[in-house]
Amino acid sequence: RIQKIRTTTKHKQESEKADKIKRSMSGVAKKIINPMSLRAALNLQSSKIPEQLAKSSAAFLSSAPSGGKHTLPDLSYDYAALEPCVSAETMTIHHTKHHNTYVTNLNASLEKLDAAVSAGDVSSIIGLQGALKFNGGGHLNHTLFWENLAPAADSELKDGPLKDAIIAKFGSFDAMKADVSAMSVAVQGSGWGWLGYDSKSKQIVAATCANQDPLQATTGLVPLLGIDVWEHAYYVDYRNVRPDYVKAVWDVINWDVVEKRFIAASQ
Amino acid sequence: MTKFSLAVSAILVGSAAAWSTPMTMKADAGVDSRRNILQKGAAFAAGLAAPAAAGAYAVPDLLYDFDALEPYIDAPTMKIHHDKHHGTYVANINKATEGKDPVPILDLMADALEAGPVRNSGGGHYNHAFFWDEMTPADKAAKTKVSDQLEALINKSFGSMDEMKAQFEARSAPGALFGSGWVWICVNQAGDELKLVGTPNQDNPLMKGVLDEVMFPILGIDVWEHAYYLKYQNRRPEYVSNWWNVVDWDKVSSNCAYVIENHAGVPVRD
To answer: Which segment of the chain is annotated as a signal peptide (chain B) (predicted)?
Structure first.
């Protein structure tokens, strides 16, 4: 009988110890503790982790949102809605093929990342960084892009904090357009033109990034407006004439979304 | 090399007097037609490079029609790729080299990374000039052969032609060469092995600083989206696997022989 009591107490103590350790860890650390090392840290003699602890650990281990997979977001407008600036054909291929491939490959890369993290395989973790940047950046950038586009009839920069900030930084709306356009056209090879928010200087800034490098992770700027200048974004409609595409895309910018982003970033 | 090719070309066009002035002649209205004749003559002269007329690089005419590489590369792509994309690189390299002594575009490659716009527009001009001439219509391509020298190098470096093609296709995949760039088979500095490399944008292995060592391309594919988008959209792997059908292995073999003998890059019609 005495032995039984001791065992129960021991389990209770181990459980409390586990909870204490869990609470004391930072959010990031929680995500990379795997069942094996958790057991080792707790010096648990049982090979079974208490059920509650196992459940929450599993949730921490997943790198995808809510333990699920990233998905291709729907557009809030029809594929033809941005014509004549961007054709339905371009929108369809761009969304269902290019963006979709980034989503698929991002999910695949994250699965591999989970496995590498669980195994403590640092070399593989590092080896995955390229694929994560390409595909994660591709997913991020295109999601932002679809949201900052709108049918021409709905594209209007109203008076407000965004307009004020643009004029404060660039002198005029047209000057901002000219700057961002010139930089976007000048991107060598594949990349993106951006209007971003610099929280240090509290200013709107024109910027570009190569390939699918995401603006915020690469430069620290908060993305407000993105213009895809990969050839796939304009080749069907404009062939090699990127300047014509960049000129036209200003007619289909969703300024409401850009302003919402600006307000959120500048708070 | 340059003086020799001048003399040969002069004989071919039968107007030695026109070429008796040194290379610092100024561009004038007649230079385009002289360049054209010179280029065609040079093409017959087994790939000797025509020296660039002063300040005036030009897009070399294709050795085949725009639709000659169908169905593997479509005619609209060939036309736009050649006339517009390559045309823009030529316009820009001419701007960048205005007032300078003319040199073959090959000569600008080594130091291109230090020469501002030469990297992009000079690289673009060389790469595309190289690209057009290593391709030929599929029926002709089928009759071309890999030389013994090239075959030996392929087997030594990759094991077999099939293995080389498989690795080349893997290196060209969208997840491997991300964004815009080129994939090349090169002869290494030592001249004893073939290397498979990718370069971004309009860089190439001849440019110091792009790779661990300068290397000499003998085969290369453009994987910028403009090279395949009209026909293949996002299906780059399909474009690359189809591309083998239009590769001129005689030309690739002669590229190989040239770079090994001269320890230098292949001259192009510029």
So the answer is: 1-18
